[in-house]
């Protein structure tokens, strides 16, 4: 045992420590299912960019439109679900239960969400180019770019670092469960904000598609 | 080649690596202090490789021409 392993958990409220009970094998260090969930997330996450490559390689406008709509719609739907549903569900749970959700949610979404976002944005640019609408002087394209920039900054600046911090915390000999629950709730609340931006971008998309 | 798309993907990947790298260094420091086990750092390495793999596939798209709208 390391010297750290014998010191009390830092930052874990007594109520949390009491409610979580004695640490089992999965309570210390990285839970054994983390790698399995990460592999699953990667297996799903690699599909959208691969389909985008296929759409461009086969010069299929239909497939390009499909991959843009399915990734954008799934990304928005996921954020709406997290912001409107999961945030309420998690608030009703105690911190120990929130941590258990975070331990599974973070690795499962780790590759899927960035892949959906990256593919939706990239496919959207190609789609706009294909339709001759990628005019950087157009206020609608500028508005899209601003919203995409905001979403990207949120993703890279808050979502991803929080997910990695949760990973690091999970890998610690004495994970700070309160910190894990706090970071996870922050991500879920942010998902609601992302959903609001995405509703805005879908309004812009609808305008670009119709006019 | 679609230079603008490739450039955008490279910028995104670089931003990702810079942020992830700083967090990774923090994790390595935690490991040296004995707070984090080896599996924790190893899984972070796999995580960054997986993300980079997704960026590489996205970057491939820049080498294809965009299909014209029907």
Notes on the structure:
The complex is a heterodimer of chains A (211) and B (70). Chain A contains eight helices and no strands. With 211 residues, chain A is mainly alpha-helical. Chain A has one domain. Chain B has a domain at 37-63. Chain B contains two helices and no strands. Chain B has helices spanning 3-32, 38-60. By secondary structure, chain B is mostly helical.
Write the layout of secondary structure elements.
The complex is a heterodimer of chains A (211) and B (70).
Chain A: H1 14-20, H2 34-45, H3 47-57, H4 61-91, H5 95-109, H6 112-130, H7 139-171, H8 177-210
Chain B: H1 3-32, H2 38-60
Helix pairs in contact in B: 1-2
Entry keywords:
heterodimer, A: about 210 residues, mainly alpha, 8 helices, disordered N terminus, B: about 70 residues, elongated
Order of helices and strands of chain B: HH
Arithmetic mean of pLDDT of chain B: 86
Low-pLDDT stretches of chain B:
none
Helix content of chain B: over 70%
Sequence of secondary-structure elements of chain A: HHHHHHHH
State Rg of chain B. 17 Å
The backbone outline of chain A, from C-alpha atoms, is elongated
Query: What is the count of DSSP helices of chain B, taking H or I runs of 4+ residues?
Result: 2
Task: Outline the biggest β-sheet of chain B.
Answer: none
